[in-house]
Every structure is written in C-alpha cells, then in structure tokens.
Amino acid sequence: MRQSTLFGKTKRENPRDEESQNAILLIRAGFIDKLGAGIYSFLPLGLLVLRKIENIVREEIKAIGGQEILMPALHPKENWEKTNRWAHFDALFKLKGYGEKDYALGATHEEIVSPLATKFVFSYKDLPFYLFQIQTKFRNEPRAKSGLLRCREFLMKDLYSFHTDNADLDNYYEKVIIAYKNIFKKCGLEKNTYLTLASGGSFSKYSHEFQTISQAGEDTIYICQKCHLAINKEIKEENPFCPQCQGKDFKETSAIEVGNIFKLGTKYSAPFDLKYKDEKGEEKTVIMGCYGLGPTRLIGAVAEIFHDDRGLIWPENIAPFKYHLLVLGENEKIQKEADKFYEKMIALGQKVLYDDRKISIGEKFADADLIGLPYRLVISEKTLQQKSLEIKKRHEQKTELIKLNRAINKLK
Amino acid sequence: MRQSTLFGKTKRENPRDEESQNAILLIRAGFIDKLGAGIYSFLPLGLLVLRKIENIVREEIKAIGGQEILMPALHPKENWEKTNRWAHFDALFKLKGYGEKDYALGATHEEIVSPLATKFVFSYKDLPFYLFQIQTKFRNEPRAKSGLLRCREFLMKDLYSFHTDNADLDNYYEKVIIAYKNIFKKCGLEKNTYLTLASGGSFSKYSHEFQTISQAGEDTIYICQKCHLAINKEIKEENPFCPQCQGKDFKETSAIEVGNIFKLGTKYSAPFDLKYKDEKGEEKTVIMGCYGLGPTRLIGAVAEIFHDDRGLIWPENIAPFKYHLLVLGENEKIQKEADKFYEKMIALGQKVLYDDRKISIGEKFADADLIGLPYRLVISEKTLQQKSLEIKKRHEQKTELIKLNRAINKLK
C-alpha cells in the first residue's frame, strides 16, 4: 500500500490521556484511536494486525475440531438469571429495550451456547463437539487505563467443548493447551508466556491461565524456582508450597493474562437442562469446557513486549506488512525506480507499505521505526549508484545492500 | 466437510415462533438459531454464507478505494448529543456504565467516524478518503418479526467518504452505485434489485435506496411503467409524476431495502468541526457521503427470493459449499468409493459437504433440498454399476450421470 493514501497518520506527540505504553505506541503509530476509556477504533494498520491474529487463532482452533459460529451480543436477561449471574457477574452491562425488555451485553457466552446446544444434542452420538466464535465482548470495567489490556469493548475468541464424560473433556483440554501454545508461538510470545495454574472452581481442582510476563501486566504470578511451574495469586495464597514439587522459593512477577481455559463440568449445562441419552438410554448431563483468548489484548501484550524507544517491533507473523519500502529524495529518477520496484513486489503478492510521501528523510526513518515493520527497504540516490537497495531488520542495527535485480528473488 | 460432524442439524418442523419465510427456512436448514426477537446466532453453515457476502462486499468497496477499519459499538452520549440525535434517533439503545456514564449502542457511525477524521484531516491534501467497516449494529426495533430482514442486532457494511467539494462527492457517489450493483449481481440479486430514488434530506435533492422486490419486503416502491425508474413512498407522496419522464403510471410493489446511499454534505462534519485548509489557506468544512449495506439482511433477502417448497436454493457465489455429495446405501464398498471421491475433491480444494450419515435415503434427499447447495452429487449402488455418480442442479429437475474417473476434472 502507498503510505501517501493510508488513513492514520503517525503522531509526533504522545496522546495526553493515555498512561499505558501499548496505547501510547499504537496510537502514535496510527494503529488505533481512542474513543473513550477502554474503547478503541482499529485503523487500517491495526485492523491488519488484528485479522492476522484472528486467522492464526482460527487456524489452530479449527485444527482441533472447532466449528466457527457467531452468537449475538444482546442477551436476554432470562438466560443470565438461570445461572444466577444476572445479579453476580461483575462488570455486566445491562440495558432495556422495547417493551421494557432487559438485556445484558455479552461479557461471555456460556449463557447462550448452552441453551443453543440443547436444540441439537439428544444422544451420546451427538457428542463431542466444539464451537467457537471470534466476537465482540463488553465489560463494564471500573478501571480501564491499560490500553488494549483491559477494554470495555474487546474482541474475544471463545471456544466451548461438549462431552459425555470427564475423560473426554480431559483429553480435549490437553489438545487446547497445545493449540494455545501454537498460537502464542506464532504471535511471538512463546518465550514470555507461562501456562499458569489457577483455581478450578467447584468442578475441577485447577484451571489454567496463559500469562505473558510484562511489567504492564495487571496480574501477579509466581514461578517456582525449583521446577519452574507458574501459579497465580489465588493458588499462592491457598498454599505456600509449589503444588508440583513442594518447593517454596518463588519468583514474583507481573503478567498479562492472554488466555484462560477452564473445565466447567455441568456448571452451565445443568441450569439449561443440556442432557443426552447414553448407550443404555439413560439421561445424563453434558460435560463442558470453556477456553478464552483475546486477540485485541494480544495486540496490547505484543506492543508492551516488542518495542524500543523509537517505536514498535512487530513479530513477522502478525506485522501489518512485512516490508516498509522508503524512497528517499525527490529526484524523479529515484522515484521512478522505487515505483517500479514497488509495483514488482506487489505483482508478486508481497506485503509492502511504500512510503512515497513528499516528506523529509528524517521523518520517513522516524515513522518506519515507530510503525515497526520487520524489514525496512531504502531506495535512494546513494543505493541506486550501486544499483541496489538497502535492507535493515527493525530490531537490528546493521544494514545491507542488495542489488536491485536480485532483490525481488531474495526478498521472497 | 463431513455432515456427520457438522453442528446444526436440520429440523423437520417449522419453528413455532417465526412468521417470516426466511427465518423459517434458515432455522430449519440449520443456518441460524433464534435467541430472541430480532436476535439470531449464525451456525456454521450460516456463517459460511455471511463470510462469503462479507468478502464480496469487501472486495468491491476496496476496489473503489475503501480502507477498512473497525469502530466500536459502545458510543459515548456526548457524540450523539453533538448531532442532536441522542434525543431524536429512533431505536437507539441506551445504557449506563461505571460512574453513571451514558452510552449508546452504535446504530450507525457518523457520530464516531466524523470526530475520528478530525484527528487526521488538516489540509486539502488529506482529502478525499473513504473508510468502511463490516461491523455489528444495534437498533431497538419495536417490531422484529421479519427474520433477518429487521434485526435488533445485525451486521452492516458502512462506508463513509470525505471530500473537499460536492463535485468530488458526486463523482464518488456514482462509483459506489456501480460497486453496489456489482455486489448485488454477485449475490444473485441483480434482476430483482432496483436503484430507487429516495428523498435527500436538507443537503441533496435525492438519495438512493437499493430495493429488492419481494412480497416479504417491509417497504413499498413504485416503478414508472414508462421509463422504469423506481421511486420510494416518500417521493411518490410528494409528487404524483415520475421525476424522470413525468409519467404517472406506476406499478406498486413490496421490496426489501438492501442498501442505501446518501450525500450528507456537512450535516455530520459541521457539528464535529471537521475542517480542512484549502489551497489558499482558507478553512472549509469537509463534505461527506455515507453508504450502508447489510450482509445479514442480504441473507434474508436471498432466502426469501431463492427457495421452493422443499427448501433453499443458494446462488453459487454465496453458497456455503458448492457441492453436496450424498452416499446412498450402507454397503461398505459404496461407502469406500464415496469416501475416496470426497477425499479427492477436498485435496483439490473443492468445497464439498459430504453427507456420510447413517440415515435413510429419503432423509438425505430431503436435507439436500432443504439446505439447497447448488449441485447435488449422488454415489449409490446404481450409479456405481455404471462407474458413475449422478449430478443434479438444485433448481433443475434433470439428473445426469458422470463417469467417476472423469468427474474430478469435470467438476472443477
């Protein structure tokens, strides 16, 4: 894309109403815009990142049998009353519609997916199955000062699994752990993200959170210095010893909860009478699991971790474009060469942001660093004298010249 | 996809709480599920259709320069007060958040996109540009009895254009008309859809609606029998003569409004002080246009128009799968041949729903008609005796045998 036509200019100044590093960088670089506390628009660059993360998530969840659906955000009050969460779910937005009808704005979808399943589950032969959606959630957060890490409106991938028995749920739960690890790896967060023990509610001893270590994180986790197990605050407070090796030396650190997985048992199937007939014709309640992951929060986590004082540094898999091509100098011949090279790259299906703007060299370099695409390509009078372009990785200092006639093949 | 694993079984009975043909058919065929009046979930088959329509819309809007963004659904009250629509917009859902903050649920996005644009528009050099999103809208509809034709929660493509002057807006407006025509053509609605004159508000004499003729439509349009111009009820009531040829013989018909386009002028730029400096350095107010199109409503319109008494009949471009492969008979050899054929099709990237279920032949045929994929392929003992499969188009009666060893090539 030609940067001269891109909507969402970079800003030299930090926004005045943001404290969090991720929001400051993403706003300055033109990825997002703030509408209100915890409420952001995604501009073209930001939406490209979001779609890439969505596709990574979709691919991995489909690979473990997930079928994609799309459930509504407007939830009838009755559904939330059945599980006793109308009164007790923190941060549920509530509103009235025509005829004084009460709705909740979907903060999660157990109250919708369970009654949906009742319409299609009759026999053990209908189980197991796995439904997921990538959908907008709403939470009436009292504090929303962490940019994309805690929003009042955000995107979530929520997956729900339905089983005849606990063994089948346990088996699928392990598959989800692997899928989540693949997702975080593809998003560049592999090294920083810990599978963390959390309490399991009434049905299971433990659930798990995926916690990405970051000073910006609102959670605290404890890493056992003996066996490297991570546990969350609740678990730590219940038991001063490591649940795995009984060690008592922990490293405390801030972390961002980027995912959580939970064995629900019959907690949300029982209230909706979600039952099946087993092989003997006996009625039994369906066993469920739920698995959350926030694509918008993930962008915030990536921005917190991958940046320097000049701007963002996108992992290649989720960068809005792979290459940032800069043409330096207003000489018509240079422009023409750069145009030609850009058109060739595009014709080959390469993802290139082309800075064709009539602005100073310094501004172009500053913007390239701020936006943070993986590879910066420069075509200038100097590089053309050697029939070359200059290539530099965003997170490295060294530059390299590549002959123009070889560059197309080399950059594949 | 193997139908034995597909979530969303077909239903033999009509749902009891639906009056509209589109909802009845789409629910029975397993495309959607009703959560409440005007609120539906999209099941796997329905979501596949929705994504295809979204991609058609995206492609056409990008082709006329649209840049995709994603704006929030939670709108601060202040934005809607600036345009005086907090009090006067029909069907605006309102709610309170933490700290007694008032929000509207986005019913349209002029109140969001205009202040967003102020952050990036300074000079005439920043214009024109075109922003669109495919996003969930909410409207507190008093009547929501027409299935996907009038929802309280629905998907909308909303495009906004920003110009220095009216001539530029007029020029872009004509481009949008062509893009919309392309979209409706690709969705199979070309013949039934009329570009219809509607009133233009204070800024322009006319706006336009795209109206698809259907008995299920909630609108009424009038087609001039002399020049074939279509006009809506408002225009007809203002003037008994055709605005184009002065004819007075009209055909009255029900229609579904599948799109509308509007020259806004400065109606939403002025309240937000959306200005630019022209070439002389003078401040001027930006001229805007807005262009709506509802992908979920489009599904409803297609279902209303393309069905018979046995079920849906999807236009090929937006069908969830192109082929419905049925294996008939439980003989292991037949099953094996069908499996083999299915695997080959999938390996070639073909979109096939494979009815591998152990149910009666009658049920399989009935489901194929109800779901309504463009081509039904049958492999049975009878077809295998001739080393063939049987192919039939959903909307035709005649069947044809194709030799299995040629079918893969022929079905490309």
Describe the 3D structure:
2 copies of one chain form a homodimer. By secondary structure, chain A is α+β, with helices and mostly antiparallel strands. Helices cover 30% and strands 31% of the residues of chain A. Chain A folds into 2 domains: 3-308, Bira Bifunctional Protein, Domain 2 (BirA Bifunctional Protein, domain 2), CATH 3.30.930; 321-410, Anticodon-binding domain (Rossmann fold, 3-Layer(aba) Sandwich). Chain A has 12 helices and 23 strands. In chain A, a hairpin with a 3-residue loop joins strand 5 and strand 6 (101-105). In chain A, helix 1 (21-28) packs across helix 8, helix 2 packs antiparallel against helix 6 and helix 2 (44-63) crosses helix 8 (295-305). The model of chain A has no long low-confidence stretch (mean pLDDT 96). Chains A and B meet through strand 1, strand 2, helix 2, strand 3 and strand 4 of A and strand 1, strand 2, helix 2, strand 3 and strand 4 of B.
Lay out the secondary structure.
The structure is a homodimer of 412-residue chains.
Chain A lengths: L20 H8 L3 E5 L2 E4 L1 H20 L3 E2 L5 E3 H6 L2 H4 L5 E4 L3 E5 L4 H9 L10 E10 L14 E11 L2 H21 L6 E7 L6 E8 L5 E6 L5 E3 H6 L11 E16 L9 E3 L5 E3 L1 E7 L1 H11 L1 E2 L2 E2 L10 E5 L4 H16 L4 E4 L5 H11 L3 E5 L1 H5 L2 E6 L5 E5 H7 L2
Parallel strand pairs in A: 3-7, 9-12, 19-20, 19-21
Antiparallel strand pairs in A: 1-2, 4-6, 5-6, 7-8, 8-16, 9-10, 10-13, 11-12, 11-13, 13-16, 14-15, 17-18, 21-22, 22-23
Helix pairs in contact in A: 1-8, 2-6, 2-8
